[in-house]
Amino acid sequence: MKSRLSLLLFLLPLLAACGPGDKSTATPAATPPATSAVATPGQAAQTEIPATAPIAGVDYFELPQGAPYAPLDGQVEVAEVFGYVCVHCANFEPSLVAWKKTLPAGVRFSPVPAAFGGPWDTYARAFYAAEALGIREQSHQALFDALHVQHSLAPTSTLEQIGAFYAQYGVDAQRFVATMQDAAVSAKVAAARQFAERSRVEGTPSLIIDGKYLVPVDERGYDHMLRTAGALVAQRQAVPK
User: Fold this and answer.
1) Which one of 3, 101, 176, 233 is separated from 153 by 20 to 30 angstroms, measured CA to CA?
2) Structural domains in the chain, sorted by start
């Protein structure tokens, strides 16, 4: 009973997130709807430490068994677990892009696609295939737009349709599809899934700081999430390496 209660308390903040149950649509998860407190897409994000320090279990969650996505090498890591099929991730992206520009030296940002199964895995493969072929940066926002604005792609799009989308960035569509199915891409998708699992990610978007702290989005909106992450980054930078 106690473990079920703990899980329920952990899931309550995830009111503005997509989750593993969203396998076939690009619509919000079947959870209580996000409120008007969610930041307007593109609204400037703030990175200053809040007047009240973030509270564990309220603003973020500690990850005793967590680990960074990649070796830290003296840096502070901010990993975003996201899904292309998640409408909340698409809405979060403009605020995130603005926030990343404010990160101090010594902070590494790592996008990690959620591999919750079904279309989530398909588009996680697309992310890593685009990375392998050197077109991830220029195609990232465009893929969100194709799914959630133009609707030229859908969560149920075929590999061939996804390959055709990426062909506009100068790669052969068939080569892109083959890369999506490559063993190296499969290994990266598996590693992304393991990272999300050990980081206790139950919905997207989520931010993980140094593999130690999980910052989920909730009804307080994107700006609150980013302020919390900024405060935790500052705390981690203050720790002697």
Assistant:
1) 101
2) 2-238 (3.40.30.10)
